[in-house]
Design goal:
Chain lengths: 92, 264
Amino acid sequence: MDLLNLFGKKPSTKNIAKERLKLVLIHDRVNCSTQVLEMLKTDIIRVISNYMEIDEEELDIQITQTQSEDSNGNVPMLYANIPIKSMRKVQM
Amino acid sequence: MSEVIVITSGKGGVGKTTTSANLGTGLAMEGKKVAMIDADIGLRNLDVIMGLENRIVYDLIDVVEGKCRLKQALIRDKRFENLFLMPAAQTKDKDSISPEQMTKLCETLKEDFDYIIIDCPAGIERGFKNAIAGADKAVVVTTPEVSAVRDADRIIGLLEANNLSRPTLILNRIRVDMVRKGDMMAMEDVTEILAIDILGIVPDDESIVVSANKGEPAVTDDNSKAGTAYRNITQRILGNNVPLMDLDVDNGFLKKLKRLFKAN
């Protein structure tokens, strides 16, 4: 066991740096600002709300990374978790 | 076969000019005929790092504008007769030269030189586009800091979009003590984030400041740690397989004591 841990060694800041970098690079690489993401979010809510009532509080839309199927690299992915409260009656 | 290598980074102050000077000098020490081009028009510095600032008569823009012949603007190094510097113009702006003119200049230099090292300015604008135009290969310099790594990622994307695929990385100014404490990203962390091949690692070293003061690149100093790192990188550019430098060579009393405890 590492003796240093006994004296309450602080968590390393390099992991904070890594996590922050990974997130900011995902946005940089797809050239998507938080502003654009906000606009996208508003539009998605508007369209979906035509058909169903959704829980806007619990809504989660973000850009993440996923393993590409045909190459080894990571590709950006739009992730959306939209809880449905109830369906609306849609006029056909 | 001649090769044009551009040294770039995106962010300023991470060591592009120092790297250019040391790799240019390192290759010359290996007997190669080398031309270094300072592409940082308006903010030239490769001349002072090389200690050649007093010898400048003509510059890159004079060549492009036809005010002198190419050979007249090439300054011979103080120590290595096979090493030359093409200084940038200090009083012109970056629009004084086009990417096409840079490409043509590189093509002409390739006839006479084994290696052409281009010191790219910071940024992603015209100066960057000029600097990479004639390059066959790109080397990205970064430090283990979030801002530098972020900019390096952007530069890698731009290089690949400009047909300079598979650039390699030099991780500069590593502080072993901080990496050990977990307060600085290690090489593995940076290469994982950037998904790029490593060309070399350079420790943070006071000898770089001293060598810049004197205008003598650290690569010529056998006692300099950073100098050794640059000599290793030079070998890799020449195609020789040299293991990455072991930066963890501190064998002080405390280190030994810590190891003893860790072993249990």
